[in-house]
Amino acid sequence: MRKYYEVRGWLLTAPYIIYTLVFFVIPLFWAIALAGTDWNLVSPKRNFVGLDNFITAFQSPKVAAAFVNAFKFMVLFVPLTLAISLAIALLLNSLTVWGNIFTVAFFLPYLASGVAMALVTKGLIAVNSPANKLIVSLLGFQPPWLSHPWWATMVITALIAWKFSGYYALVFLAALRSIPREMYEAAALDGAGWWTQFRKITVPMLYPAFYTVIVLAVGLMFGIFTEPYVLTGGGPNLATHTWQLEIYSQAFASFKAGYASAVAILNALATFAGVAVVRWIITRWGRAYGYEE
Questions:
Q1: Do 147 and 201 form a contact (C-beta atoms < 8 A)?
Q2: Cβ count near 168 (within 10 Å)
Q3: CA–CA separation, 167 vs 86, rounded Å?
Q4: How does pLDDT run across 223-278, given as a tens digit for each residue?
Q5: What angle do CA 87, 88, 92 make, to 5 degrees?
Q6: 20 to 30 A Cα–Cα from 213, which one of 7, 64, 83, 140?
Q7: What is the pLDDT of residues 191-233, one digit of tens each?
Q8: Phi/psi of residue 171, each to 5°?
Q9: Is it the case that residue 98 has pLDDT exceeding 70?
Q10: Those residues with Cβ within 8 angstroms of residue 108's Cβ, 6 or more apart along the chain or in another chain
């Protein structure tokens, strides 16, 4: 009987194991093998070049810009998305009759195509668009939406935040609904107001949700591609150039598959390092509330 359950367990997990092998493990080893070659994506011949691709990547200003931009997007995106998604979750948690309908509405941007959203955004901020003319009339000047480094960065950050805030709000909403109402009732009887309840009950009880959302958001910042590709192409002056843009341009525009694989490996290492540092910081914060890793 035990053997039967073991076999059944392996059969049930087989689809995920096969998926992981095909789309993660095999490509990983293939990328490691290619990183030491000068393969051009077309020729059947691949010459071994050792660590030359990695040395070139470390000296590349585009790779350096991608590394810096990932952390720049992280500093802007993570706090903005946390605030918006938590506000949405608090709003949805306070609704009763229409809560589920609004929950779906906030989640819809996450399901929308990133290319379509970027094209719509590009149309909205076009010089002759009605929306842009309204903004100009309110501000009194024409914002350099995609021609100035910081403006372009903020446009892309806002677009990604709008896309993912509804998704992260679901994580917070599930955590909010798991908090016992008796805790709030007891605090209210002791004279605690809304802000005190939020600081002393809601935030500590939401630590697992904060942990999940922050880690997901940080990892996302190392994989941005669609928005800068459609809106800016990585410009201006490499201000929105990302790891994925560099990998794509080197592999499919310059046909340097070996070099692109080396950049991809550096991207993976930077992602793991960034997430590890953020996890360490969040874990220390959680220990103040009695949570252990």
A1: no
A2: 24
A3: 11
A4: 999 999 999 999 899 999 999 999 999 999 889 999 999 999 999 999 999 999 99
A5: 120
A6: 64
A7: 888 889 888 889 899 999 999 999 999 999 999 999 999 999 9
A8: -65, -45
A9: no
A10: 166
C-alpha separations of 76 from 10, 18, 47 in Å: 43, 37, 42
Report whether 229 contacts 245 (CB < 8 A). Answer: yes
Spatial distance between the Cα atoms of 277 and 93, rounded to a whole number of angstroms = 32
Q: What is the pTM of this model?
A: 0.88
Provide the pLDDT for residue 264. Answer: 93
CA atoms within 13 Å, Cβ hemisphere of 197: 18
Between CA 224 and CA 66 the distance in angstroms is 10
C-alpha angle with apex 119: 159 to 158, nearest 5 degrees? Answer: 10
Around Cβ 110, how many Cβ atoms within 10 Å? 15
Reading the block at residue 198, the tokens are 């939020």
Q: What's the chain look like in SS3?
A: CHHHHHHHHHHHHHHHHHHHHHHHHHHHHHHHHHHCECCCCCCCCCCECCCHHHHHHHHCHHHHHHHHHHHHHHHHHHHHHHHHHHHHHHHHHHCCCCHHHHHHHHHHHHHCCHHHHHHHHHHHCCCCCHHHHHHHHHHCCCCCCCCCHHHHHHHHHHHHHHHHHHHHHHHHHHHHHCCCHHHHHHHHHCCCCHHHHHHHHHHHHCHHHHHHHHHHHHHHHCCCCHHHHHHCCCCCCCCCCCHHHHHHHHHHHCCCHHHHHHHHHHHHHHHHHHHHHHHHHHHHHHHCCCCCC
The fraction of the chain above a pLDDT of 90, given in percent, is 51
Q: What are phi and psi of 206, to 5 degrees?
A: -90, 5
At position 157, the amino acid (one-letter code) is T
Q: Which of 220, 206, 209, 219 is nearest to 277 (CA)?
A: 219
